[in-house]
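Aim 2 progress update. The chain analyzed this quarter is reproduced below.
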Amino acid sequence: MKNTFNRLASVVKYVRLQLNLEQQTVANETGVSLRTIQNIEAGKSVNASSLFAYLDFLGLLKNMLSNLPNPDNLTPMERLKATPKRRQRASQRTKKKDNSNHIVENTTEFNWGDEQ
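Predicted structure tokens:
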């Protein structure tokens, strides 16, 4: 993940410099703090909405999103495969009610002397 942040940091800094923009200008235009812009360009982890605002301002967000699959265009079989399977309980105990409305676990009958 560190390499991903570093790569993204290099790209956004490169694009900002190509657009001849100061970090403070980007901060003012995006509403993201100067410190956050510096953190993004340093490859540090930041709030996703701040990162997306910066990427959108630089014109990079649309390109990134275009590479993601569109869930609206999935076939029914692809949707089914993408649906996570439901986990089953580790153990299921059957319970039954006795006449006094108390819940009693369904266990084998115990007789005195069987405890060996």
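The radius of gyration is 29 Å. The beta strands are 95-97, 103-105. These observations will guide the mutagenesis experiments scheduled for the next reporting period.
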